[in-house]
């Protein structure tokens, strides 16, 4: 039968008024308007023996509950193995709160109850559109888009990768891959959008007739957009400028695309456990008691101080329940890989620091490997080992604070090596 691909998209824009995700404790950052819609884009890939699916969402992330629900339905309704379905998120911070972060945006149950049907609608339509397809791969240099927010001398991605899908000689889809937090729109902005990567993808889609564009986020744990944390008027201007530049880079990568052979399709998924450091339970109790004391102080004014006390109480109560449930053996999660010829999508659920993603890519040459983050679940940052060293009086937000936002334990210093080795082994199996 040869390679067949089908693509489709559905609008997953939330209603105006939902809280957006990120940038502070109990900010109540409610959306006020839609700058550009959010989409779920689905791709079905079938070589006659194996069928795989990618759902790409303009969301900050998803939890494993949603992923399992979609996999169950896709297996039952569309004959897609649960192990072969990937949900990858762009990680926009200008979309609804959809991951379990304490105080970083309240989730909207009504919106989330609609998400499975919206994602399945795109997946079903993509299945109905399966048709013979060819792939072409290209890349383009990138400058002025991102910087390393953790180290001045830290590495920064300098190229954008793109995959062009054609059917009967006509473009039907493209996939782009780059590593950068989409955070041009920040704390004071309240417009719903996919941030600069979403606007750029939408713009390049409009270059074609009916093409569906995918953006697969890379290893962006320590990589920010060049413009971030600006006042709303400056942020909006910078958003349009940066998205236009990124769209031009994407167009250059697509123009450079050369055909690649896909003799077979392979996919696999694996459960893994990420190592964590378990704190003393008395320390956790101390945080809860201190938070109760602060909240009981009638002289503590409403605002940031009271919000922070509330955050401490809620998040450390989450952590306390982990002891009661016996969740002390590391964080269970999963990794996944889809291979099309010499192109591999190696997926994980974290905000991996860029150096790890780059090393994985280099270690898998001559394969072309897209290390795709924010897939199927959200487990927070995977920093470099130096981020855990407090003897230099450096406090790392990714290493020490984000685990608390997630209501969990921090990772062990070698977690990046553990995840990287697991991904490399997964790549070798496909």
Overview of the structural elements:
The chain has about 425 residues and is an alpha/beta fold. It has two domains: about 5-265, no CATH class; about 280-325. It is built from nine helices and 22 strands. The protein has helices at about 65-80, 110-130, 195-205, 230-255, 280-295, 305-325, 355-365, 395-405, 415-430; strands at about 5-10, 35, 40-45, 50-55, 85-90, 130, 135-140, 145-150, 160-165, 170-180, 190, 210-215, 225, 260, 265-275, 275, 330-340, 345, 350, 370, 380, 410. The strands form seven sheets. It has a five-stranded mixed beta sheet with strand order 5-4-3-1-6, with helices on one face. A five-stranded mixed beta sheet has the order 12-10-9-7-14. The protein has a four-stranded mixed beta sheet with strand order 15-17-18-20. Helix 3 crosses helix 4 (about 230-255). The longest helix has 24 residues, at about 230-255. The two termini are about 20 Å apart. The model has no long low-confidence stretch (mean pLDDT about 95).
Any descriptors?
single chain; 430 residues; alpha/beta; 2 domains; five-stranded mixed β-sheet; 9 helices; 22 strands; 33% helix
Task: Give a short overview.
This protein has 430 residues and is α/β, with parallel strands linked by helices.
Q: Low-confidence parts lasting 5 or more residues at pLDDT below 50?
A: none
Give the overall average pLDDT: 96
Structure summary, number of beta strands: 22
Strand-residue proportion:
25-35%
The rounded Rg comes to: 21 Å
- Biggest β-sheet, characterized? 5 strands, mixed
**Oligomerization status of the protein chains:** single chain
How many independent structural domains?
2
Determine the structural class based on helices, strands and strand pairing. Answer: alpha/beta
**Helical proportion, percent range:** 25-40%
Number of helices: 9
End-to-end C-alpha gap = 21 Å
Coarse shape: globular
Strand order, main sheet: write it out: 5-4-3-1-6
